Structure formats: C-alpha cells, structure tokens
Amino acid sequence: QVQLVESGGGLVQAGGSLRLSCKASGSIFSINAMGWYRQAPGKQRELVATILNGGNTIYADSVEGRFTISRDNAKNTVYLQMNSLKPEDTSVYYCNAKEPFYSGLREYWGQGTQVTVSS
To answer: pLDDT category, 56, cuts 50, 70, 90?
Structure first.
C-alpha cells in the first residue's frame, strides 16, 4: 500500500503562485509515475501533470508553460509549482501514484487540497 499526503493549497489572487507538495510513504518502491489531477465542481477529474521515474514529464495543454512538476527522490515527494494562476485553475488538486499491477496499473490517491484563485 502507498499513502499520499498533499499540502500547499490555499487562496491566491489571479497571477499569483502556489506550490503543492505530495509526500509518498509505504510500499513506494514499485511506483513508476506520480502526478497531479484536479477536479472542479460539476466537472470530471482531469490530469494536470505527471512525472515518470525516468524524469519525463507530461502536462495538460491548459497548464503548459505555467506549471512545473518535479520530484525529490530523497524525500519521496513530488511538487507542483503553479505560476500565473487563473480563476479557472480553481479546483481540488489530487496527488496520484501509479504502479504496475498484473497486466495493468494500480493507482493511489491523496485526500485532495483546495486551490482557489480569485479574480
């Protein structure tokens, strides 16, 4: 089992910045990708950014160039630096970890952290 604990959400004005953190614990040795998703009220959960074990990163088009995902392997922590925030970035942000499981993937989720961007 893997446990994910997020921190760093809050209220910020448009154009501001926030950094989210996600610390992983437990059986983390088999994790091959970690990332961030977000879900706004009435909308589906969507991928924001993911980072693979090799360091490759993937971003949603809506955040490309504004958000940066990174990881500190020594601390088992993934970060999401969010700059130039917009009101439409307002969502609950969830940390996600994936590991191979038989012929597919098993996923773990954090509890979520609220990000609110005021106009």
So the answer is: very high
